[in-house]
Design a protein that fits this description.
CATH architecture of chain A: 2-Layer Sandwich
CATH superfamily of chain B: Histidine kinase-like ATPase, C-terminal domain
Shape of chain B: globular
Largest sheet of chain B: 5 strands, antiparallel
Helix content of chain B: 25-40%
Strand order of the largest sheet of chain B: 1-2-3-5-4
Order of helices and strands of chain B: EHHEEHHEE
Number of domains of chain A: 1
CATH architecture of chain B: 2-Layer Sandwich
CATH class of chain A: Alpha Beta
Radius of gyration of chain B: 15 Å
Structural class of chain B: alpha+beta
Largest sheet of chain A: 5 strands, mixed
Strand content of chain A: 25-35%
CATH superfamily of chain A: STAS domain
Order of helices and strands of chain A: EEHEHEHHEH
Distance between the termini of chain A: 38 Å
Structural class of chain A: alpha/beta
Oligomer: heterodimer
Strand order of the largest sheet of chain A: 1-2-3-4-5
Strand content of chain B: 25-35%
Largest interface: A-B, 30 and 33 residues
Shape of chain A: globular
CATH class of chain B: Alpha Beta
Number of strands of chain B: 5
Helix content of chain A: 40-55%
């Protein structure tokens, strides 16, 4: 069975979601619920920390596609940070770096929120 | 050489399928990034079988067969659900369109075709089969 978990933490500029494990069609619903919870609580500055994310399929990517417009309409952004190379590869296959802020570290994503930049 | 794994048509078992594919692709000495590509393509194919062929009925089964020869690493996914209607499939226009529509689905077939050398669908002995092929390096050449 896929192991996947999300922990939330609040940084000065954003809500950070630390993803851990494997994000597939079974576990994607956990991410969906987590992001929906952030939005319901009025948190629209979101950083997805991929440091411990080992795998993602299109079901996981689909969650980001489904929510990013709502986040941006509310003045926030969904930034993706610290992806492992094999996970970045999957994001890249679908062209994510062109339409999402994909950053090398959580610190860079936080700095981006502080400087007010939504995207490149 | 041929190996098989039978799993319920339930997304909870996708990780088991990935482990099975990873083990055999590793024995075939594919580079790590190719192993990741094969795992992802098979995961997408199994997800589509569960979602579309079996319409999320998790009491059916998927048989995963890995067949390796000198030239190819072949994965056959057998199921008794609704066959894939190639003529009715429309790949998502692009990522911008998916974001605008706030819909993330439909990218599985795109990834399968992008990551594998061959993707084929057929009916054999009453089973529907999705066949995914990765060519092996032979003397450093593909």
């Amino acid at each position: 069975m896929s192991s996947f978990s999300i922990t939330f933490r609040t940084s000065p500029s954003a809500q950070v979601l630390d993803l851990s494990g494997e994000l597939d069609a079974h576990t994607a619903q956990d991410l969906e619920v987590a992001i929906q919870t952030c939005l319901s609580n009025g948190k629209f500055a979101l950083i997805i920390n991929g440091t411990n994310l080992r795998y993602i399929s299109s079901a996981g990517l689909g969650v980001f596609m489904a929510f990013v417009e709502e986040v941006r309409e509310n003045g926030g952004d969904l930034k993706i940070a610290a992806l492992q190379p094999q996970v970045y590869d999957t994001f890249d296959l679908l062209g994510f770096p062109h339409l999402f802020d994909v950053l090398a570290s959580v610190e860079e994503a936080e700095a981006r929120f502080i400087s007010g930049k939504l995207r490149n | 050489m041929q190996h098989s794994l039978r799993v319920p048509s339930d997304k909870r078992y996708l990780a088991d399928v990935r482990r099975f594919i990873e083990a055999h692709a590793t024995m075939t000495h594919f580079p790590e990034f190719v192993i990741e590509h094969i795992k992802l393509a098979v995961d997408e194919a199994c997800t589509n079988i569960i979602e579309h062929a079996y319409q999320r009925n998790n009491t059916e089964a998927i048989e995963v067969v890995v067949a390796v020869d000198e030239a190819t690493f072949r994965i056959i996914l057998r199921h008794r659900g609704i066959p894939f209607a190639r003529d009715h499939y429309h790949r998502p226009q692009d990522l911008r369109a998916s974001i605008n529509a706030r819909k993330g689905g439909g990218w599985g077939v795109f990834l399968m075709n992008r990551l594998m050398d061959e993707v084929d669908y057929r009916v054999l002995d009453g089973y529907n089969e999705v066949c995914l092929v990765k060519k092996r390096m032979i003397n450093g050449k593909r």
